[in-house]
Write a structure and sequence with these properties.
- Helix content is 35%, strand content 30%.
- The longest helix has 46 residues, at 3-48.
- By secondary structure, it is an alpha+beta fold.
- It comes from Pseudomonas neuropathica.
Length: 282
């Protein structure tokens, strides 16, 4: 690795560490705010009973940025919401929830009333950007009601993408066969929400591993284009042929949201392999 690229790598690692600290602090603040809003809603419900649903469904004291109170009963009917799920009030939502949210709902039903505040994760549309994102929810069962408040987890960051790239590169250098098999079997931590690893054999120009789409294995990477027809594979191969590390921006489908979004990829040469991880931005 040349001096310039080594400095770039070191700067990237420093940014990664700083970014991880900032992300942790942000999530901690979001978590505390969500719990505080739920506790406030629980106290209000204790004093007002089901009459509280009207207040929970208004844009007021029970809505805090993209955090809001929602209530479902133990039959799966949405009773109140200060967010986009207000459109579901009065409807049985148990059959329209995604698999992860159905699982969280079933766990909530099993939770005895006296167990206090519980938590779970699922995916839900963020009304601020219209994208389906990870959401962490705190909830508590009160009689036949389940009161909840959630917050959206940050999208995978540049720092997380860099960390995953370095992990994959290190593992590949130690155990080529095992690492490629793990990436292709979605094991070993190489798929993290909207972050995933893909590996191309530089000698053949073909995919040998991909974290989300096994149909690409053995296909010609140099022929890969974005949805608008812009070359993607060829310029990445050309870049990594000249240096051991690089970056490339393009448009690609996000496996989490299902939408075509801007993507920034980090590239690294490991022996005769191109290893890449990219993060999506709105």
């Amino acid at each position: 690795m040349g001096v310039v690229h080594k400095l770039a790598w070191l700067c990237g690692m420093l940014l990664m560490c700083l970014g991880q600290v900032q992300a942790a602090e942000t999530e901690k603040a979001d978590s505390q705010a969500a719990i505080a809003l739920l506790e406030k809603a629980l106290a209000y419900y204790h004093d007002n009973g089901d009459k509280a649903f009207a207040a929970f469904s208004r844009q007021g004291e029970f809505v805090d940025q993209d955090r809001y109170v929602f209530v479902v009963d133990t039959q799966g009917v949405m009773l109140a919401s200060g967010g986009p799920s207000a459109a579901l009030i009065g409807r049985d939502v148990s059959d329209v929830l995604g698999p992860d949210l159905q699982k969280a709902f079933k766990e909530a039903l099993k939770t005895p009333e006296g167990n206090g505040i519980q938590q779970a994760e699922y995916r839900w549309q963020n009304w601020s950007d219209g994208k389906v994102e990870r959401k962490h929810v705190y909830y508590q069962r009160v009689g036949q009601r389940i009161l909840a408040v959630g917050y959206y987890l940050p999208r995978a960051s540049a720092e997380q993408a860099m960390a995953l790239l370095n992990k994959a590169a290190t593992d590949l250098a130690k155990d080529e066969k095992g690492t490629l098999a793990a990436i292709n079997s979605l094991k070993g931590g190489y798929l993290q929400d909207d972050l995933y690893v893909f590996v191309v054999d530089i000698n053949t120009g073909r995919y040998v591993a991909h974290g989300t789409n096994l149909r690409l294995i053995n296909t010609d990477f140099s022929m890969i284009r974005d949805p608008d027809g812009k070359p993607v594979g060829e310029p990445m191969l050309a870049l990594i042929a000249k240096q051991d590390y690089g970056e490339y921006e393009y448009r690609w489908k996000n496996p989490v949201t299902g939408k075509v979004e801007n993507k920034h990829a980090y590239l690294k040469k490991v022996g005769h392999f191109l290893v890449a991880v990219g993060y999506y931005s709105p």
